[in-house]
Design brief:
Blueprint (H helix, E strand, L loop, with lengths): L23 H26 L2 H32 L5 H19 L5 H29 L2 H14 L1
Helix pairs in contact: 1-2, 1-4, 2-3, 2-5, 3-4
């Protein structure tokens, strides 16, 4: 289970050096990152052990978390960052690329293990960039009006 701890505990800690977690959206997204990293570890373990059924379940759970996580970022946070001059196009493209591989891993017993391993490494690197670059930038460059627009957009789109 992604949110629980029945997947082995190896999780890379996420950042909080800039106090960006005082922003509720960033706190929520950061908590998602912890769940995602737990899921990545479990998915890697299932894949390495050849447990296709477990891999499919964990990949499906990861897809579900990533779908909502990406929606939150792409609907409101990324557009405000782009308006502030912070590039987000590459981050959105990574969402699409990683999601496509994970969807295949969730839906089929046979998956290219190299492709899946590459996607998981890209996902970990993506989270690292968000945690150490993008979220601190959002905390520093977005003013209260931008955060108000973000919250309004999230309310509107949910």
């Amino acid at each position: 289970m992604l949110g629980g701890r029945d997947v082995d505990e190896e999780v890379t800690p996420v950042c909080d050096y800039c106090d960006c977690r005082t922003r509720p959206l960033l706190a929520h997204l950061g908590a998602d990152h912890e769940r995602i990293l737990t899921g990545v570890h479990g998915l890697r373990t299932a894949t390495d052990s050849g447990d296709a059924d477990r891999r499919m379940v964990l990949a499906g759970e990861l897809v579900d978390v990533l779908e909502e996580h990406g929606r939150l970022e792409e609907a409101a946070l990324y557009p405000e960052l782009a308006l502030a001059g912070v590039p987000t196009d590459a981050m959105e493209a990574e969402h699409e690329d990683v999601d496509a591989v994970l969807r295949r891993a969730a839906g089929a017993p046979d998956v290219d293990p190299v492709e899946l391993a590459t996607a998981l490494r890209r996902l970990e690197a993506h989270i690292h960039r968000e945690e150490y670059d993008l979220f601190p930038a959002a905390h520093q460059v977005l003013d209260d009006a931008a955060w108000d627009r973000i919250h309004l957009e999230l309310e509107r789109s949910s």
